[in-house]
Design a protein that fits this description.
Layout: H1 4-25, E1 35-41, E2 46-52, E3 59-62, E4 67-72, E5 77-82, E6 88-95, E7 100-102, E8 104-105, E9 112-114, H2 115-129, E10 140-145, E11 150-162, E12 172-182, H3 194-212
Antiparallel strand pairs: 1-2, 1-10, 2-8, 3-6, 4-5, 6-12, 7-9, 10-11, 11-12
Helix pairs in contact: 1-3
């Protein structure tokens, strides 16, 4: 029988470590419920900023498209397949609640933020994704949707922020993107790595439990 202290260590460290290890070893067999939005400068091989979502999304939708042309002729049907990358729409919606959350970002000034604070960080990150570097070239945005095992380069189309009387002080987001290329183009050193995911997964569980006691 495990005592309470051992159970706590198991739930906060061993279980998250196992989840990350399984995903890192077999990403097509085991998902990791973690989403990260990252802005990079490929010219300078530099990570500009990122946000690891501290709360799982309420809903996620990915549409997998293919370039297929079906043409009817007089005596047959011709199907032409195009195997190049197809732009796929992705949408995510949810909220970050009201209370404090442990947040991992590219600028760790305040690791604890309210739900509103996380929404504002997401809003500013979206604005940053549309800016250019010192050479006039646009930054690249990478989406890590590890719940589906995807790391893709995306273009953010828009993000709707809404609040209702029933959910006072809770801002909901509805983020629309298009995956335009794989996420691992350019330098591999820009990728948000295994150690980062492991650290966030473990620390997030510990900190969120501590925040509940405040």
């Amino acid at each position: 029988m495990l005592n309470d202290f051992t159970k706590s260590i198991y739930n906060k460290v061993i279980v998250p470590f196992g989840e990350v290890m399984l995903y890192n070893t077999l990403p097509n067999e085991f998902e990791l419920y973690l989403v990260c939005l990252q802005i990079v400068d490929d010219d300078k091989n530099e990570i500009i900023d990122y946000l690891v979502f501290p709360v799982n999304q309420s809903s996620v939708m990915q549409i997998q498209k293919s370039f297929t042309n079906v043409k009817k002729t007089f005596n047959a049907i011709h199907v032409n397949e195009n195997n190049t990358w197809s732009p796929n729409p992705i949408s995510m919606s949810g909220n970050f609640g009201r209370g404090f959350k442990f947040v991992m970002t590219g600028k760790q000034t305040i690791p604890l933020k309210t739900g509103y604070g996380v929404v504002k960080y997401l809003s500013n990150l979206i604005k940053l994704s549309k800016e250019n570097n010192s050479n006039g070239r646009p930054y690249r945005t990478i989406l890590y949707n590890l719940a589906f095992g995807d790391i893709v380069t995306v273009e953010i189309i828009d993000c709707k922020f809404t609040q209702t009387q029933q959910e006072a002080r809770i801002w909901n987001y509805d983020l629309s993107m298009i995956a335009v290329a794989p996420g691992d183009i350019g330098s591999g050193s820009l990728n948000f790595g295994f150690k980062n995911f492991l650290a966030f997964t473990i620390v997030n569980k510990i900190m969120n439990q501590a925040v509940k006691l405040i």
